[in-house]
Amino acid sequence: MAQGKNDIKYLTPIAVDTKKKKYCRFKKSRIKYIDYKDPNFLLKFVNEQGKILPRRLTGTSTKYQKKVAQAVKRARHLALMPYVADLLK
Known about the structure:
The chain is mainly alpha-helical and 89 residues long. Helices cover 33% and strands 0% of the residues.
């Protein structure tokens, strides 16, 4: 029997969730201009249905999230990217 309440022993270590720090890939790579003519790059910021992913998922800063959204909208307008898709990726 355990002699005290603090004498609990585990067979396997307890899994502790260590979240990876999100970073803005544009600040890290020092990218100033997001090219709307590159749909393969913009697909990283769009989900399977064609919706723009929010900053809390991508880790993009506010400044660059606005530029990404504008680039995706321009690419859609020029038919480089679809507005809606069933399985885009």
